[in-house]
Amino acid sequence: MNPRPREHFNLLARVLHWSMAVLILTMLFVGVTMVASLTLRPMLIELHRPIGIAILLLALLRLGNRLTHRPPPLPADLPAIQKTAARASHWVLYALMLSMPLIGWGMLSASGYPIVMFGGVHLPDILPHSPTLFALLRGAHGLLAYLLFATVLLHLSAALYHAWVRRDGVFASMARGPVHDESR
């Protein structure tokens, strides 16, 4: 395999990637525990809402950074189908990072209850009160959570494949910044 050119994601992209990874994994486990535990559910819902809005805001920032800063190229010897899968999975992740919080926000709006974040901060309703709409959005939120979980697992598997099998610099381009070779 050819060594990958020393190109890396910019610092903002790396910080957003890893901070959002922590938030998304937290949300997935919080979501599963919310469904499984009635005693922890109220506390976890209070945690779920602000983390979801944080993910939405960070996803918007990340999308802006992605559109204005070209990511490092994938290795030239990577099969075309893997390049296509990598690009598609990234855009699916962006779509889910943006849609999941919006659907959750819309679901809460449709429920008719106030959307309390923290410290008395309330979010405005973005949809009218409607039990039918609430049920539809609740189902969509749950299904997309499964899709997000599957996509995160695929993304993690691909990252480890690049780090441990191919060792082609793809993982390093997101894991750390450029290394300055002082021997030159």
Automatic annotation (TrEMBL):
Stretches that traverse the bilayer: 12-35, 47-64, 91-123, 143-164
Membrane topology annotation: Multi-pass membrane protein
Location(s), subcellular: Cell membrane
Keyword Transmembrane helix appears in the UniProt entry: yes
InterPro entries from the UniProt entry: Cyt_b561_bac/Ni-Hgenase, Cytochrome_b561_oxidase, Di-haem_cyt_TM
Cofactor(s) recorded in Swiss-Prot or TrEMBL: heme b
Protein's name in the database: Cytochrome b
Protein source organism: Novilysobacter ciconiae
Source species taxonomy: Bacteria, Pseudomonadati, Pseudomonadota, Gammaproteobacteria, Lysobacterales
